[in-house]
Amino acid sequence: MKRLVLILAVMSIAVSLFAQTGGLIPVPASGNWGFAGGRYYQNDANARLAKANLRVPQSDFMVYDFNVRLESGIEDGHGGIGIHLFVDEAFNAASWGAGRSYLLWLNYDEAPVSSDIDSGLSAQIYKSINNSTMELMESIPLNHVLPLITDRMLANPVSFRIEADGNTGEIRVYDPMDLSIYYPLYVDYSDLPLSGDWVAIRTNGLSVSFQEGL
Question: N or C: more exposed end of the chain, with fewer CB within 10 A?
Answer without folding.
Answer: C
